[in-house]
Specification:
mainly beta; disordered C terminus
Length: 154
């Protein structure tokens, strides 16, 4: 079976070709970007980093990081409604990623939002952004995306 590819134009990533299996539908969009429903997940240049590129607006791309690299013991409990919306049948269906905010100054570290992770079902190609009520998690957990040398006080 030959895998299909789709062409994507991105202000950030340029013109790229990605496997069709990297396309995800966000029925509710993302927080602040509710009108954008279709995205592709593109592996970043370092392990644990990804880009979530809008298929609707080529200027919208989010840098994502594996939150388990940012905070040891990180966990998110999905409720029954969330599992149903995504079609989750097994924990292996789920990929959790945290949105990264890049600093304006190169002397500062980027930060990861551990309280608003992106949840993807890799089998159904559905995704959403949830809000975690755990006050011990930071919306600005420091992360060095260049070396992925991460701080434990996230």
């Amino acid at each position: 079976m030959v895998e299909e590819f789709i062409s994507v134009s991105s202000t950030v990533l340029g013109s790229i070709s990605v496997p069709a299996s990297s396309r995800f539908i966000f029925a509710s969009g993302l927080h602040g970007f509710e009108s954008l429903k279709e995205f592709v997940l593109v592996p970043g240049s370092r392990e644990g980093l990804f880009w979530l590129q809008s298929l609707t607006d080529q200027s919208i791309a989010f840098l994502l990081v594996d939150p388990f690299l940012v905070r040891e013991g990180y966990s998110v409990d999905l409720g029954p409604t969330e599992k149903r919306l995504l079609g989750v049948k097994s924990p292996d269906d789920v990929l959790l990623l945290a949105v990264v905010t890049l600093p304006e100054l190169s002397t500062r570290l980027a930060s990861a939002n551990l309280r608003g992770p992106i949840v993807l079902n890799v089998n159904t190609a559905r995704g959403f952004q949830t809000v975690v009520s755990d006050d011990s998690l930071s919306m600005q957990a420091p992360v060095d995306v260049l070396s992925l040398s991460l701080r434990s006080n996230a």
